[in-house]
Amino acid sequence: MNLQIQTFAPELTATILLVEDDRDIAEMLAETLQQNGYAAATAQSGAEMDRLLRRQSFDLIVLDVMLPGEDGFSICRRLRAEARTPIIMLTAVATDVDRIVGLEFGADDYVTKPFNTRELLARIRSLLRRASYGSERPERAGAMTFAGWRIDPVARTLVDEAGSQVFMTTAEFDLLVALCLNAGRVLTREQLLSLTHAGVAGPVERSVDVHISRIRQKLEPNPKDPSLIKTVRLGGYLFTPMVEPS
């Protein structure tokens, strides 16, 4: 099966990879992206995706769960081990378990079929903006330190006390930046979604809990008894360390 590449006008701000085995859906999404100023490439399997990724880089990947051969969950986990390119997963199964599995494997967002293309576009724009690829860039915070860690929102890096960089997904990094900028203040899940999605559509609220759990696994000395990110009953989350400019 031949890899289909569709590239549009040269002034496009981002290139998106659609990994979708349904040709009708892939063609519809590619056309929608074209109409909204993006470039797109399509692949119908993980193997085709791999061949394309060896040839060029992408700003965002839309990844279907049900694919021939390797499924989307496995592909997502593999991609996330190598890069932090934003990933939106598509699925025909609308269960919380599938959403959480996708998020735990490193997806940044999750959309259920059938979906509204305008909503999907809003989520794409949000992720691109958060990953600094979009044309609307938020104000940048300077590098900060807390509890032996150093986080740089511009370089999008997190470094531990030993100087080793710790990998984070786009969603995890943005949530941690929001917590650092609001240290000592309880933030509700709604506020965290608003702060990290710039007020447009984002993942289900429960995804915040999944991402916070993943952040704790990377930051906390004892993730089962967190001391840096406290859960406030009926409130949200509280970031306890002193945060200082670096």
From TrEMBL:
Stated name of the protein: Regulatory protein VirG
Classification via InterPro entries: CheY-like_superfamily, OmpR/PhoB-type_DNA-bd, Sig_transdc_resp-reg_C-effctor, Sig_transdc_resp-reg_receiver, WalR-like, WH-like_DNA-bd_sf
4-aspartylphosphate modification, residue list: D64
Primary site of residence: cytoplasm
Native organism: Methylopila capsulata
Residue ranges of every copy of the Response regulatory domain listed in the record: 15-128
Signal peptide: none
UniProt xrefs under Gene3D superfamilies: 3.40.50.2300, 6.10.250.690, Winged helix-like DNA-binding domain superfamily/Winged helix DNA-binding domain (1.10.10.10)
GO process annotations (BP): regulation of DNA-templated transcription
Gene Ontology, cellular component aspect: cytosol; protein-DNA complex
Domain OmpR/PhoB-type: 141-241
Pfam entry (one): Response_reg
Keywords: Activator, Cytoplasm, DNA-binding, Phosphoprotein, Transcription, Transcription regulation, Two-component regulatory system
CDD domains given in the database record: REC_OmpR, trans_reg_C
Cellular compartment(s): Cytoplasm
A GO MF term: phosphorelay response regulator activity
The entry's DNA-binding region: 141-241
